[in-house]
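> @MW can you paste both from yesterday?
MW: sure, first one:
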Amino acid sequence: VSRGALAFYTTCDEYYARPAWPGIFTGGAYSYYLPDGTYRVLFYPEQSEYPESFATKSWHSAKPSCSEAVTVTVEGDTPVNISVAAGKMVSGAVSTTTGPVVGGDVFFDASCQDFARGDYPGYSAITNGTYAATMPPGTYRVRIKPTSTGALESWHSAKATCETADTVTITTDGTVDLIAQSTVSPTATPSPTPSPTTAAGKQT
């Protein structure tokens, strides 16, 4: 990666509370002054200038979220190599059982804990019933937030909560169609009418 930015955090709480100002590096190498300690390292790409790198925002060792980040230890003037993720493009349709979700947003969360923290590595707007996002490889829960009528804010496969959401695993570029919960209640199947029964009478 020939250009980008790195930010170092001692804990995930520090990242969530006060995102650090990242330091820019060029030429594929960085040099920062840091106190000795253990850090989680977040990479920000400069794809607008170097789109050929295809590197995406990710944590050290190509992890999608702070909670999954591999830590690095700084002890004196010791080289620490940082590896980042090559972005994977995922796209597809967004719909309910009754029709497409015309507009809104989709968010990819690495875990329900990350969702609660507001830390999502992947995002896309929904345009005319489709989305497209670039993110690190990983397993995600996908939240669908419609702005059009006919669909409710829900999780993939029309689930109501993060904990019950179907997961999506991304390893390569590909297509994943997403299903949101419809505002239309499913039509109940009518119960069959029981056949009348005749009471047995006395036989004479």
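MW: second:
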Amino acid sequence: ARRGPPLPPAPRGRRDGGDPLRRDEKEQAIAALSERLAASDTVFAADYRGLTVKQMAELRGRLRDAETEFTVVKNTLVRRAASATGRDALLAYLDGPTAIAWVGGDPAVAAKALNGYATEHPDALTVKGGLLDGADLASADVVRLARLPSREQLLGQLAGGIAAPLSGLAGSLSN
């Protein structure tokens, strides 16, 4: 038999060290996430399970340069927000520890930054998938998006493609 003062009662709610949210806090969080999902054209979901605090800060810095914010989210709250906004394709990626990359700029630049970091830290960060203009984007599609040339490169290729025949014509006419 145990001697000494009685043990305190087991904590209620979450047992992973976090404080459970009150109902009004949950409703506010769901409303904020719903508003953000409705306003975002592109979001990526990632498993950040192996990242240290320092690596997370470094990743956030890289993504900030790509006009993207990386936030850790509660899956249950994001599920409710996704269902409320009609972004049901995101539900498939809300398993395990999840962080959302909220893209404010060019989706290809954000995908390059996120995929590049995932490639450098394959055991710590995994891109699960996401949404691009409301359409489902699997992990392989995010990698494909990351491999696209930048907008500036594509514009340069287009300009070069237009200029080459014109410069050839000008050379022929001058001869």
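> thanks! Strands lie at 42-47, 68-73, 98-103, 126-132, 135-138.
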